[in-house]
Specification:
alpha+beta; 147 residues; elongated; 2 domains
Length: 147
Amino acid sequence: MAELLQDLLGPLVCDAAHTWYLKPEGPNVLVSPADETPSPPCDARADEADVALGIERVNEATTLGLRSVLSSWAGLRTFAPDRVPVVGKDPRRSGLFWLAGQGGYGIQTAPAVARCLAGLVAGTGLPPDVTALGVSEAQLSPARFAT
């Protein structure tokens, strides 16, 4: 199965409705039901029903035939009210910078938003390849929520 995953799947695969994703992890595969179950801050634990749901969704959409779980984990997904990552200097606290609200896309967005934050902390602004996509500091800034 490791060869199949590496040959067919690439770094990350998800469905168009974002109801599941999978990512090759060596000879295995990381699977998520991509759920957004509200939860207060806590020490997140994988729910057996969610683990089964993730496998079921992947198996319905692929020919992988996943049957067993080596280990499971859970995490809390954070979202800003507008569902856009929060990256930049806090407007109220000197020296505090934010990098939060990546939702379920931390695996995909971490390299880019980290580069954005590094430029903002260094005072050089967003990287040119990011601004070329039409992304501005104001769109990411925590100041957009200040009242």
